Amino acid sequence: MASETSVDGEVVPPTEPADIAAVVDLIKSSVQADFDQTGHAVRDAHRKAHGCVQATFTVLDTLPPKLSQGLFATPRSYPAVVRFSNGSGQSQDDRTGDARGMAVKLMGVPGKKLLEDEASAQTQDFIMINHPVFFVRNASDYVGFQRAIDGGTLRSVGWFIGHLFHETRIALAIRNKEVSNPLNARYWSMTPSKLGTEQMKFSAMPCVGSTFVEASASRDRLRDNVQGQLASKAACFDFMVQTRDRPGEMPIEDPTVEWDEKSAPFTKVARIDITPQTAEQGEACEVRSFSPWHAVEAHRPLGGISRVRKNVYQTISTLRHRLNGQPRVEPGAKVE
Prior knowledge:
The protein is an alpha+beta fold. The protein contains 7 helices and 9 strands; from the N terminus they run H-E-E-E-E-H-H-H-E-E-E-H-E-E-H-H.
């Protein structure tokens, strides 16, 4: 029997701890096996980066009280790092259909953080992909999905056939999105978080009137076009939040269900500015860790998939850095 619904709408199934442990073990074994073959540990997802860029995240003033909570309660600017990536666990051709990720890490964020071993960290992360919903509902379903992926092509195909009319449709919609420059895409959190006393999803959209470099058609075209643009031109995103105004239509525990923008529109709360620069590549970019749980309590991630990600992200980041002999330390008050 499921536990009682929390004030934020969370319901934790009694089998969830075991399901999360199973997912963690499966992914950990995959990362370890890859290291044993190649001598280098990589991320289990979002493996291929198109670059890490320095940015400024500016919270707007005169926000309504409902939105002026947590990080958004005080208008100010934060130095930030943004990592753009493909969603796959393989370093594949950018012309292959895939999710595209945007991970934003703010520096100099005061307050106690959620992860016990990083409670004094000064960072807040916002993790997004270029689609509004995820294609796995909960921890139990994630176990089946991960076992299918690890089991090879036939088991993977079997899982997608078995989930043909909902989850597979979402996965195909994600794969079929055309992106030629990560600076010219909209990104969503997919999963919800707290917004002080409210619950929210968040999104980043290119600023109106922006123009983009999209000349490259190579297998690394997303990296090429980011570098081509930032060689001489700036980029910016509007950072927006959507509050959970209709709980019956906006579930916390099922990230495959979209929160309808027509009935609950996103509102701009901040701006992300990226000046002309040379994007970090290689180890300088890959040593960084991003997690939705690099967060203050006012922006605690919500829902079963978020709870899965907490354990997976922390375990795999720790393992990856240990195997590669790299320090695993959150940056301080400015970009490092």
